[in-house]
Amino acid sequence: MRVVIVGCGALGARTARLLGRRGDEVVVIEADADVAAEMSQAMDCGVIHGDGSRPAVLAEADPARTDVLLTLTSNAQTNLIASLVGRSLGFPRIITRIDDEEFEHVALELGLSDTVIPARTIGHYLADAVAGRDVFEFSGAIKGDARVFMFVATAEHADSVTALGLPAEARVSHVFRDGEFVLGAPELVLQKGDEVVIVCHRKRLDALRERFEPHASGDAPD
């Protein structure tokens, strides 16, 4: 697998090392010249010095040969821009780091459904551990051909979950409404702004993206 990482802070560097140990081909894009030079010396990976949110720099990383783009800088705005530019250049999968949860909803509205929020993940883990609960990551239940897809409901989706007419092997698991968890029962009526979580077979992802994600031009549905 070939992975391009934008941002070589602590998270980016750690991820690059782990991927390298697994035998994946890694290319890192770093705006700080000193950090980029250090990475070139310390790690067996490709390093591009430049602003990873710039089209010319991302294009240099060869999107056509890349499997995943990770935008892992400490700045949510930079990561969002880099992710959108990456999508326009044809990176097949993009995972976006968001440290400020305020931007999570924005990411979903832009069709960036693969997001990671490090502070929240660690916070939930520690809170459950302190409470003496068995810590169980949802990702542990997504194995084999199972996948998760998320989108933000618009006015046209303001109907029951059943009325979405999802393809076979795709079901609404739950909804986040104003930050509150709501189970995705068939009779649940969606509201504009709901963050809808769908569990599906991997072969249904393309159909879901085609229907619910904004086009690469950035035009979102009304």
Would you give an account of this structure?
The protein is an alpha/beta fold. The chain contains seven helices and ten strands. It starts with a strand and ends in a 10-residue tail after the last helix.
Q: In short, what is this structure?
A:
The protein has helices spanning 10-21, 33-42, 55-60, 76-89, 104-109, 118-130, 205-212; strands at residues 2-6, 25-30, 46-49, 68-71, 94-97, 115-116, 146-152, 170-177, 180-183, 195-201.
Helix content range of the residues, please? 25-40%
CATH classification class of the largest domain = Alpha Beta
Number of helices: 7
Query: What is the count of β-strands?
Result: 10
CATH fold-level topology of the largest domain: Rossmann fold
For the record, the CATH architecture of the largest domain stands as: 3-Layer(aba) Sandwich
- For the termini, the CA-CA separation is 37 Å
Q: What order do the strands of the largest sheet run in, or round the barrel if closed?
A: 3-2-1-4-5-6
> What is the CATH H-level superfamily of the largest domain?
NAD(P)-binding Rossmann-like Domain
Question: Which class best fits the helix and strand makeup?
Answer: alpha/beta
Oligomer: single chain
Q: What is the overall silhouette?
A: globular
Q: Beta fraction of the residues?
A: 15-25%
The domain count comes to 2
Radius of gyration: 18 Å
- Report the mean per-residue pLDDT as an integer: 88
